[in-house]
Amino acid sequence: MNIKSLSEKFWVEGFLHIEDFFDPFLMDEINALILDHFGMNPDWEHTNEFIEKSGAEIVPWFPQREGVEKFDRISQQSLLREITEAILGPGWGELYSMSMFSKRGTKGQAWHQDCPPENPDQFNLNRLVYTHDITDDIGGQVLVVPGTHKKGELITGGPFENIYGQVALSPKKGDLVFLHGHCWHRVMPVTGAFRVSTNYRAMPKGTPEEITDIAVYRNMRYKFSTSEIIEERAQT
Ligand SMILES: O=C(O)CCC(=O)C(=O)O
Ligand SMILES: [Fe+2]
Asked: Positive or negative, the Cα torsion across 38, 46, 215, 203?
C-alpha cells in the first residue's frame, strides 16, 4: 500500500475508499457488539424537529466513551494511524468514535457537511468502518460529490435532491472510507433490515474539539449541543 499516493488521492477527491482493510473476524465481533447495543428497534435520540428538518434518520452510540474496549482495536491499528497521519499531518488528534444505526424504511441522511467550511484548515476527518456489507438490496449507499471539500458551502436546495457529479459508494464488510468533513455527502434510504457504520473521527492539529457541533444542511445549519437551528437557508 503506497501511503503517499493514497493521501494524494484523498486530497484530490475529498474521500478515499479502501477495500478489505480490516480483519473480517474483528468486523463480526464489532458488528455483534453494535447490534447488541441497539437491538432492532432503537428509539430516536435527536429531537423530532431535527430529524424532520435534517432528514438524518440515524441513532448514534459512542462506544469508546462507555469503555467498550474492543473498539480500541480499530483506532490503535498502525496502518490506519499511518494513513491518517499522511492525510492530516503530524499532531493530528482523535475526536471520538460513533456507531450509527438506521432501521428498515428510514431515509438515511440528507446532504450535509459535518462542520462549517469557512476555515479550510479546520475540519473533521471521517474514518468510516463498515462492519457489514452495504448492498443495493440493503440501500444506505454513501453519496459524495468529489472535490467539494474545496468548494465551500454546500449548495442550497432540496435536502435529498441529486447533485451534479455525485458518486455512490457501496462499502463492504471490512472496508474503510476516509471522508473530509467539508466534502458534500449523504446516505441513501435503508430498504434492508438495518444499516450500521462506525465513524472514528479525527482532526488536524489546532482544530477545536467541538468542530462537529454545527453541521451544514441544504436547508439549515444545526447546532447539536443546544439542539437548535441556528440558520435557515433559502431553497433555490
Ligand atoms: O454512515 C455513513 O456511511 C456516513 C455517515 C456520515 O455522514 C458521517 O459519519 O459523517
Ligand atoms: Fe456526515
From this structure: negative
